[in-house]
Amino acid sequence: MTYERVWTVRFSDADSFGIAHYPRIVDAVHETSDMFMQSIGFPYWEIVEEHGYGLPLVEMNFEFERPVEAGDEVTVELTPDLGTRSVRFEYVARSDGEVAFTGYEQRVCAPADGEGSMELPDDLRAALSEYADADGDGDGSEDD
């Protein structure tokens, strides 16, 4: 199962040619992970205070196959790939049924004091697992 949301590319998201600015695409992806984390009961803005850890972004990468333009309805799919101490959010974005871009965000689980990393807590792992990569290959993490 994947998490999906629709991003409508606004005129303000695009350049004078009507093509979405790269930073706005990154914003849309970050917003997707925000919405996902909230939907599974672990909003980013609460986990540090309520659970004592966070999921800082340590790496991201995207490959574009076709432009995303103002007015497009882009379906952004997120699938978590769980590691021992991290989670990789894999993305596939489609416009008019065609893949526009793919990519990932790598997030490490870190204690609130910022010292090193920690294993994904069981309750977070369980919530993420409902959407996790079906192969369970865990290749989204370097720490497996």
TrEMBL record:
Gene3D superfamilies (alphabetical): Hotdog Thioesterase
InterPro entries, alphabetized: HotDog_dom_sf (IPR029069)
Pfam families, sorted: 4HBT_2
Source organism, top-level taxon: Archaea
Name used for this protein in its record: Acyl-CoA thioesterase
